[in-house]
From TrEMBL:
Catalyzes the formation of the isocyclic ring in chlorophyll biosynthesis. Mediates the cyclase reaction, which results in the formation of divinylprotochlorophyllide (Pchlide) characteristic of all chlorophylls from magnesium-protoporphyrin IX 13-monomethyl ester (MgPMME). The gene is acsF. Keywords: Chlorophyll biosynthesis, Iron, Metal-binding, NADP, Oxidoreductase, Photosynthesis. The keyword Iron applies. It comes from the Bacteria. This is Magnesium-protoporphyrin IX monomethyl ester [oxidative] cyclase. It comes from Chamaesiphon minutus (strain ATCC 27169 / PCC 6605).
Length: 358
């Protein structure tokens, strides 16, 4: 057991056994804050029945006994090669940080709305319960490798991004739904290829992803109660923006990750499938979705990813920082241009699709 706590030496610790959180970049998980007053004043009557039904389902708490560490965890992981351990710890940290970011936002919302909008407050409180479970489960997994995150330290030292409530809805809805598709696809891949299941946490991804799916449905119902967020020209522009931002973030980050390789997956194929599915799911609520089948869509994302990898490689070089910044300018400009070209690909208007009521 003591041996299994051997740490990979390349990680920096804030104190013994506690990992210094990974450096924040544009692509690492964000922490959010919002305008709580505006959220509190929100009138939910337009879709209150559906919201109540979803909250009732949260109360049932299908996964109350799901996140229990069983005997499968009770062994040493020393047989994992050092590089695999390192890549896997990075995956656990990034997942734990993003689950914890959900917890913090939902918990804060439930606290601030408690007296002013009790229905919404209860919904957020139940969402935060699930995210706390997810983050805690991942942090315990990190501890199996001799490192964990100090979530209190993370709360105080992470930067918070302010988003107006409507932007919280668009982006958090998408991250819940993309989370669902990511977890279920990894789960199914490992069911079919169990020899690549390097650690038992992946057994838990099936019921886990159902939590994320329900969370997404909660935001779907919330947005339906505010039709002004979905039915005008600006809504179409913003939905298009957030779809591209969420897809591009995942796509670029995953091109730089070796994690999928250790699970025997092709990360590009995986991302393409996740993007196609999440895009399709979003069409149930967003007035537009992206034309991800457009022949230029993924090739343009590949060009952006190539630029991102070039910038990452330059970060490793001994060139002075100011010189690197100058050297990277053309790459950044071309990434920006390609993202703009992606944004300008004609989207699919869901309000015109037969049989879809918005
Ligand atoms: Fe979660
Ligand atoms: Fe979630």
């Amino acid at each position: 057991m003591v041996d299994s706590l051997k740490k990979p030496s390349s990680f920096d610790e804030i104190r013994p056994g506690v990992k210094r959180p990974a450096k924040e970049t544009l692509l690492t998980p964000r922490f959010y804050t919002t305008d709580f007053e505006e959220m509190a004043k929100m009138d939910l009557s337009g879709n209150e029945d559906e919201l109540r039904a979803i909250i009732e389902e949260f109360r049932v708490d299908y996964n109350r006994t799901h996140f229990v560490r069983d005997e499968r965890f009770d062994r040493s992981w020393d047989d994992l090669p050092a590089e695999t351990r390192q890549i896997f710890i990075e995956f656990l940290e990034s997942s734990c940080t993003s689950e914890f970011s959900g917890f913090l936002l939902y918990k804060e919302l439930s606290r601030k709305l408690k007296d002013k909008n009790p229905l919404l407050a209860e919904g957020f409180n139940l969402l935060s319960r699930d995210e706390a479970r997810h983050a805690g489960f991942l942090n315990k997994a990190m501890a199996d490798f001799g490192l964990s995150l100090d979530l209190g330290f993370l709360t105080q030292n992470h930067n918070y991004t302010f988003f107006k409530p409507k932007f919280i809805f668009y982006s958090v809805y998408l991250s819940e739904k993309i989370g669902y598709w990511r977890y279920i696809k990894i789960f199914r891949h490992l069911e079919a290829n169990p020899e690549h299941r390097i650690y038992p946490i992946f057994h838990f991804f099936d019921n886990w992803c159902q939590d994320e799916n329900r969370h997404g449905d909660f935001f779907d119902a919330l947005m339906r109660s505010q039709p002004q967020l979905l039915n005008d020209f600006r809504a179409k522009l913003w939905c298009r923006f957030f779809l591209l931002a969420v897809f591009a973030t995942m796509y670029l980050r995953d091109r730089a990750s070796k994690f999928y390789g250790i699970l025997g997956m092709n990360s590009r194929d995986f991302d393409i499938e996740v993007i196609q599915e999440t895009n399709k799911t979003s069409g149930r609520i967003f007035p537009i979705i992206l034309d991800v089948d457009h022949p230029k869509f993924f090739p343009l994302l590949d060009k952006c990813a190539a630029g991102y990898l070039k910038i990452l490689a330059s970060a490793e070089s001994p060139t002075p920082t100011f010189l690197k910044k100058i050297q990277n300018l053309p790459t950044i400009a071309s990434m920006g241009f390609n993202l703009l070209r992606l944004y300008l690909i004609k989207p699919i208007d869901m309000t015109k699709q037969a049989g879809i009521v918005h």
